[in-house]
Amino acid sequence: MVLMSKNESTFLHLQLKNGIYTPIVIDNIRPFYNIIRMMNSGGKNKTKKMREEKTIPSQLANHIAVEKRKARSLRTTSWWRRKIATGICHYCGRKFNPQELTMDHKIPLSRGGTSERFNIVPACKECNTKKKYLLPPEWDEYIQRLAKTQ
């Protein structure tokens, strides 16, 4: 089953066999809109089905909001100050001024990650921007593809 967010952009949600919804981030969902509506309809009342399924994206939005609040509070801790004191980006390994490093979630919030210490690493702005919503194995694959093209 495919779900979409209220604004019809950014997130698709796939229901896996075990009943868990997994968000998949897409830059522009507009071209897929009609396909998604057809998949959701299953010959039933489309409006009713879409109304029932809107709760999943809002649950994801709530999860992200809660976890961002946790991350903001972690930024003020001595743990985070020690983490960025080395000035080394977790992804590229380059050295930066500690104030230039950003907080990154290894497993992104949009993919079910949490703002726990094991999931947060310092990253330079360039790496954090490039990584976006990728999981660690997807990021590794991206880096390998970059290395092959250079």
**Record field, number of beta strands:** 5
Q: Under CATH, the topology of the largest domain is which?
A: DNA Binding (I), subunit A
Q: Assign an overall shape.
A: flat
Average pLDDT score: 76
Q: Report the uncertain regions.
A: 1-11, 13-18, 45-54
Task: Count every helix, treating DSSP H or I runs of 4 or more residues as helices.
Answer: 6
* CATH class category name of the largest domain: Mainly Alpha
Helix-residue proportion: 40-55%
Task: Describe the sheet with the most strands.
Answer: 3 strands, antiparallel
- Report how far the terminal alpha carbons are from each other: 39 Å
Rg over alpha carbons: 18 Å
User: What is the N-to-C succession of helices and strands?
Assistant: EEEHHHHEEHH
Number of domains: 2
Portion of residues in beta strands equals 15-25%
Strand order of the largest sheet: 1-2-3
Decide which structural class fits the backbone: alpha+beta
The CATH architecture of the largest domain is Orthogonal Bundle
Which SSEs are present, and which pair or pack?
Blueprint: E1 2-4, E2 10-15, E3 21-26, H1 33-41, H2 46-53, H3 55-74, H4 78-85, E4 101-105, E5 120-124, H5 125-131, H6 136-149
